[in-house]
């Protein structure tokens, strides 16, 4: 199991040691496919073209709403 969300941000620090983040980067279907997933769990905002590219490559894509708590996330996973 892999989480590519960590690749969505580049974390840097200011001279004062405060965390400074760049805006989220777009993750391409090719970057996801390079990880050779069997399954991708995505939020409902996954671009249709990305969903189609993953499906064309044989990767199952499951959409789940964004969970607001650990309990909600757990319930979503157990329901699928």
How does this model look, in words?
The protein has helices spanning 29-33, 48-56, 70-79, and strands at 11-13, 19-21, 39-42, 60-63. The chain has 80 residues and is an alpha+beta fold. It has one domain. The chain has a two-stranded antiparallel sheet. The longest helix has 10 residues, at 70-79. It starts with 10 loop residues before the first strand and ends with a helix.
Secondary structure layout:
Blueprint: E1 11-13, E2 19-21, H1 29-33, E3 39-42, H2 48-56, E4 60-63, H3 70-79
Parallel strand pairs: 3-4
Antiparallel strand pairs: 1-2
Can you summarize this structure?
The chain has 80 residues and is an alpha+beta fold. It has helices at 29-33, 48-56, 70-79, and strands at 11-13, 19-21, 39-42, 60-63.
The largest pleated sheet is described as: 2 strands, antiparallel
What are the secondary-structure elements, in order, as H or E? EEHEHEH
Shape: flat
Number of strands: 4
Task: Return Rg in Å.
Answer: 15 Å
Low-confidence segments, given as residue ranges, are: none
Helix content: 25-40%
Mean pLDDT: 79
Strand-residue proportion: 15-25%
Q: What structural category characterises the helix and strand content?
A: alpha+beta
End-to-end Cα distance, whole Å, is 16 Å
Strand order of the main beta sheet, please?
A: 1-2
Q: What number of structural domains do the residues give?
A: 1
Helical element count? 3
């Amino acid at each position: 199991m892999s989480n590519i969300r960590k690749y969505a941000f580049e974390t840097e620090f200011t001279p004062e040691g405060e965390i400074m983040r760049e805006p989220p980067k777009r993750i391409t279907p090719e970057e996801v496919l390079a990880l050779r997933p069997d399954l991708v769990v995505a939020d409902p905002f996954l671009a249709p073209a990305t969903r189609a590219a993953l499906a064309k490559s044989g990767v199952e894509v499951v959409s789940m709403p964004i969970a607001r708590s650990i309990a909600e996330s757990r319930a979503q996973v157990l329901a699928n």
